[in-house]
Predict the 3D structure of the following.
Amino acid sequence: MAGTFPDDENGRVLRRMQENGDDLTRTRDLDFTVVFPTKLFAEAFADHFKRLGYSVSVEETKTVPELPWDVVVTRNMIPSHNEICEFEDTLGLRRTFGRTQRWVGRFHSAYNSLRPSWLE
């Protein structure tokens, strides 16, 4: 999967991984962290993705002081730019009360105002 990546956050991470020798054609677990202002929102979001079959954890980390609750959703996938962006869309990150903090993969050599559907 050698090539260029878009000049955005996901593209820069994938580019660094490739430069560090990571085989981006291999599947691996990617952890997508979404941060929330309250435990209620975090748990509702987590419950929704648990029901869909994903591995999910909730923890108060205060990494982002105003959004202290982290929800980590794990998905096994090939780390491609399109797949990562599509899964971020699946997480509803453009229309939820949370926001993406980061996604992290287990790598070999590298490292609003709408009511969200998961609250219904």
Q: What stands out?
A: The longest helix spans residues 39-51. The first strand starts at residue 28 and ends at 36. The chain has a mean pLDDT of 80. The chain is about 30% helix and 30% strand.
